[in-house]
UniProtKB/TrEMBL annotation:
It comes from the Bacteria. Belongs to the SUI1 family. InterPro entries: DENR/SUI1_TIF, SUI1, SUI1_arc_bac, SUI1_dom_sf. This is Translation initiation factor. It comes from Paenimyroides ceti.
Length: 116
């Protein structure tokens, strides 16, 4: 029996275009990750939408999603806490900004402290 599809994503995203000048652009390009020395990261402390609990948020990473997830895992392991990687940000539970900044500087990243 054939598999039922529910959206364009199930069909690969692109099906048909009536525009004779249309050029297909592959959105699955692998984004190249910049070297750590070329990265400009920002370290934030955030309480919004977290029931008053503090989280350390790292923003500004430029590169592949997979490399961002690997860096997020390293930071979670370093701090011994949970966290997540989403929307191009690394979110670490708790106030570990200084510890994370030291770690990132040792890895070669340029990190800016944002906020108080």
């Amino acid at each position: 029996m054939a598999k039922k599809t529910n959206s364009l994503e199930d069909l690969g995203g692109f099906v048909f275009s009536t525009n004779k000048d249309f050029e297909f652009q592959d959105t699955n390009k692998i984004e190249e990750t910049l070297d750590p020395k070329d990265q400009r990261l920002e370290a934030h402390l955030d309480k919004k939408n977290r029931a008053g609990k503090i989280a350390t948020v790292i923003k500004g990473f430029q590169g592949a999603e997979e490399d961002l997830k690997i860096l997020g895992k390293e930071l979670k392991t370093l701090c011994g806490v949970g966290g997540s990687v989403k929307d191009g940000e690394i979110i670490i539970q708790g106030n570990f900004r200084d510890k994370i900044m030291d770690f990132l500087v040792k890895k070669g990243y340029k990190v800016k402290r944002v906020g108080s």
